[in-house]
């Protein structure tokens, strides 16, 4: 198998596994996915909210907040959200590669 084929296979496996970080905490009744904390959840975990986070928290909102698509929260919405994210990343890297390869 070519190197690029192994790369695409590895990326595909990561895409399939990525929603597990969101689904497993629900299954085991634990807190949310690691690193996806809002300021209040971070305060309960760490005991404080970093000043920088307080300043910039409201500047960004996720396109699919809560990994919902069409208002419903389901496993399919998680996979769709992951797929859209991967397509965006692959598209950006592809275009960047084309641009840099011209030079």
Strand content: under 5%
Q: What shape does the CA trace take?
A: extended
Count of distinct structural domains: 1
Helix-strand makeup class: mainly alpha
Can you give the helix content as a percent range? Answer: 55-70%
Mean pLDDT: 79
Report how far the terminal alpha carbons are from each other: 29 Å
The main pleated sheet reads as: none
Low-confidence blocks of residues: none
Number of helices: 5
Please trace the helix and strand order, writing H or E for each element: HHHHH
Number of strands: 0
Rg over alpha carbons:
17 Å
Summarize the structure.
The protein is mainly α and 103 residues long.
What does this molecule look like?
It is a single chain. This protein has 103 residues and is an all-alpha fold. It has one domain (3-102). The protein is built from 5 helices and no strands. It is extended and about 50 Å long. The protein starts with a helix and ends with a helix. The mean pLDDT is 79.
Secondary structure: elements and pairs:
Blueprint: H1 3-17, H2 20-27, H3 39-46, H4 51-56, H5 75-102
What attributes does this structure have?
mainly alpha, 5 helices, 103 residues
């Amino acid at each position: 198998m070519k190197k690029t084929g192994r790369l695409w296979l590895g990326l595909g496996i990561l895409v399939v596994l990525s929603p597990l970080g969101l689904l497993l905490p629900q299954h085991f009744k634990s807190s949310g996915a690691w690193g996806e904390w809002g300021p209040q959840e971070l305060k309960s975990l760490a005991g404080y909210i970093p000043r920088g986070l307080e300043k910039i928290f409201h500047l960004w909102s996720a396109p699919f907040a809560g990994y919902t698509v069409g208002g419903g929260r389901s496993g399919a919405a998680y996979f769709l959200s992951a797929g859209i994210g991967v397509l965006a990343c692959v598209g950006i890297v592809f275009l960047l590669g084309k641009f840099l390869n011209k030079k």
